[in-house]
Design a protein that fits this description.
This protein is α+β, with helices and mostly antiparallel strands. The protein has a single domain, classed as Orthogonal Bundle (Cytochrome p450), CATH 1.10.630. The chain contains 21 helices and ten strands. The strands form three sheets. It has a five-stranded mixed beta sheet. A three-stranded antiparallel beta sheet has the order 4-10-9. A two-stranded antiparallel ribbon has the order 6-7. A hairpin with a 4-residue loop joins strand 1 and strand 2. Helix 6 packs parallel to helix 13, helix 16 packs across helix 18 and helix 18 crosses helix 20. The longest helix is centred in the middle third of the chain and has 26 residues. The radius of gyration is 22 Å and the shape is globular. The structure holds protoporphyrin IX containing FE.
C-alpha cells in the first residue's frame, strides 16, 4: 500500500491498529518500534499520520496554525448512516469549544476565561476535594477490599468537576454513562450495532447539556466556571458565542472529570505495583506531588491527541500533505529516551517528569491541569495516611477501547482493617 504522499507503507505501519490490544494495554510499548525506526508513519487502517517521538510532537503542538486543533473532538470513526440519523433526531450540534478552536478566536476566548484557574481560585476547592475523598474512604475503610474505580475514582472527580463548573450535582450515574458514550463516540471504534447505542447516549447528553445550560442562564448569580462563561457570553457574544456555550457544556463535563478519574486510577495502579515506592510515599508524603507528576508521565490518562495539517509540511523527515490528519501519541513521547532517561522506569525523583505531554503543550495546554493534579495529590495523601498497608490485588486490567482516554476500568485493592492506623491509634 501507498501513503497519500506517495511513499510506501511499511508492514508495521500497515498492521498498526490503535483499537487492538497491544495499544490498548500499553500504547507507549506498542509504539516502541515506531520511536526506534519510523517515528512518523501513515496508518492506512486509521487514515492518520501517527507521530511517536517527543521532539516531533512538541514541534506540532508549538505551531497551531500549521497544525490546527480543529479535529481534536471529531469522531475518529465516522458515524454509520443509522447513527447519523439518531444524532440528527437529537439535533446534535457539538462544534467548537476551546480545545478544538483555531486562532485568533481561541486565544481571545481563553483569555476571557482564565480567572477560575488562578492558584487562589483553585486552592479554594481543596477542602471540598479532601472532604469528598474522606467520606468515600470512611465508607470502605473497615471493609478490607474494594474496587477503587467503582467506589470513588470517577465519582469524586465528577463531583468536583460539577462543583467547579457550577453545574447541579444531579444524575451522576447518568452523566457517567453519557461520558462513556462521548468517549466511544469521539475516540472509539464502536461496532455498527454499538454505533446506534452510542449515538443515543451522545444525543441524550447533548439535550441534557442544553437543558442544564438554559436553567443556569436563568440564574444570574450562580458560582462556577460555566457561570463565568454565561456572563462573558452576555458581555461579549462575539468572543464567547452561543454555540460555544452548548458545546462546551457537554465537552467540559467529560474533560474535567474523566481525565482526572483515569489519571488517578493509573497512578494508584503504578504506585501500588511497586510496594517500595508506595512505602516511601507513606513515610515521606512531601514526595507525593512529584510522584503524581511522574505517574502522569509514565502512565497518563490522555495518551494521544489530534491535529490536522493546514498546508503541506514536513515532520521528522516525512512530508504530510495539506489536510493530513495527525495522531500524536503523547504516551509514546513520554517514553522517548531522547528526552527521558530510562523512560520506562517509574522514578519519583526524576527531575524533568514535568516535561511530559499528558496535558498537551503550547497555547492549548490543559487549563485544568492544576485542578487535576490537586485531586490526585489529595487522593494519595489520604490513602497513604489512612491505608498505608494497601495492596494491589492480582487482576487483569481492562480498558475502554479508544485512541485517547486510558485507565483501568476497575482497580481492586485489599488491606487488613485490623492494621488500620486509626484503629490501632484511635
Ligand atoms: C485541554 C488533558 C484535567 C480543562 C486539555 C488537553 C489535554 C488535556 C491533553 C489538550 C491540550 C492541547 O491541545 O495542547 C487533561 C488531563 C487531565 C485534565 C490529563 C487530568 C489529569 C482537566 C480538568 C479541567 C480541564 C480538571 C477543567 C477544569 C481543559 C480545558 C482544555 C483542556 C478547558 C482546553 C484548553 C485550550 O484549548 O485552550 N486537557 N486534562 N482539564 N483541558 Fe484538560
Amino acid at each position: 500500500p501507498m501513503a497519500p504522499n506517495g511513499c510506501p507503507v511499511s508492514a508495521q505501519a500497515a498492521a498498526f491498529d490503535p483499537f487492538d490490544s497491544p495499544y490498548q494495554l500499553d500504547p507507549a510499548e506498542a509504539l516502541r518500534w515506531s520511536r526506534e525506526q519510523e517515528p512518523v508513519f501513515y496508518s492506512p487502517r486509521l487514515g492518520y499520520w501517527v507521530v511517536s517521538r517527543y521532539a516531533d510532537i512538541k514541534t506540532i503542538f508549538r505551531d497551531n496554525l500549521t497544525f490546527s486543533p480543529s479535529i481534536a473532538l471529531e469522531k475518529i470513526t465516522p458515524a454509520s448512516r443509522e447513527a447519523q440519523a439518531v444524532l440528527e433526531r437529537y439535533d446534535y450540534g457539538m462544534n467548537r469549544t476551546l480545545v478544538n478552536e483555531d486562532e485568533p478566536a481561541h486565544m481571545a476566548r481563553r483569555r476571557e476565561l482564565l480567572e477560575a484557574f488562578t492558584p487562589e481560585a483553585l486552592e479554594a476547592h481543596a477542602p471540598m476535594v479532601r472532604r469528598l475523598v474522606r467520606e468515600k474512604l470512611d465508607a470502605i475503610v473497615e471493609r478490607g477490599r474494594a474496587d477503587l474505580v467503582a467506589e470513588m475514582f470517577w465519582e469524586v472527580p465528577l463531583t468536583v468537576a460539577l462543583h467547579f463548573l457550577g453545574v447541579p450535582e444531579e444524575d451522576m450515574e447518568q452523566l457517567r454513562r453519557f461520558s462513556v458514550a462521548h468517549t466511544l463516540n469521539t475516540w472509539g471504534r464502536p461496532s455498527p450495532e454499538q454505533q446506534v447505542e452510542v449515538a443515543e447516549g451522545v444525543g441524550k447528553f447533548w439535550q441534557y447539556s442544553g437543558q442544564v445550560l438554559k436553567k443556569m442562564q436563568k440564574q444570574p448569580y450562580g458560582h462556577g466556571w460555566m457561570y463565568d462563561m454565561i456572563e462573558k457570553n452576555r458581555q461579549k457574544p462575539d468572543v464567547v458565542t452561543d454555540n460555544y456555550l452548548h458545546s462546551m457544556m457537554m465537552a467540559i463535563i467529560v474533560a474535567a472529570h474523566e481525565t482526572t478519574a483515569l489519571a488517578t486510577a493509573n497512578a494508584f495502579r503504578q504506585l501500588l505495583s511497586r510496594p517500595a515506592v508506595w512505602a516511601e510515599l507513606c513515610a515521606n508524603p512531601e514526595l507525593i506531588p512529584a510522584a503524581a507528576e511522574e505517574c502522569l508521565r509514565h502512565s497518563g490518562s490522555v495518551v494521544a491527541w489530534r491535529r490536522i495539517a493546514t498546508r503541506e509540511v514536513e515532520v521528522g523527515g516525512v512530508t504530510i500533505p495539506e489536510g493530513g490528519k495527525i495522531l500524536m501519541v503523547t504516551a509514546s513521547a513520554n517514553h522517548d529516551p531522547a528526552h527521558f532517561e530510562n523512560p520506562d522506569e517509574l522514578d519519583i525523583y526524576r527531575d524533568n517528569a514535568v516535561d511530559h505531554l499528558t496535558f498537551g503543550y503550547g497555547s492549548h495546554q490543559c487549563m485544568g491541569k492544576n485542578l487535576g493534579r490537586m485531586e490526585m495529590r489529595i487522593f494519595l495523601e489520604e490513602f497513604t495516611r489512612r491505608l498505608p498497608h494497601l495492596e494491589l490485588e492480582e487482576q487483569e486490567f481492562t480498558f475502554l477501547p479508544n485512541t485517547s482516554f486510558r485507565g483501568p476500568e476497575a482497580l481492586w485493592v485489599r488491606w487488613d482493617p485490623a492494621q488500620n492506623p486509626e484503629r490501632r491509634d484511635p
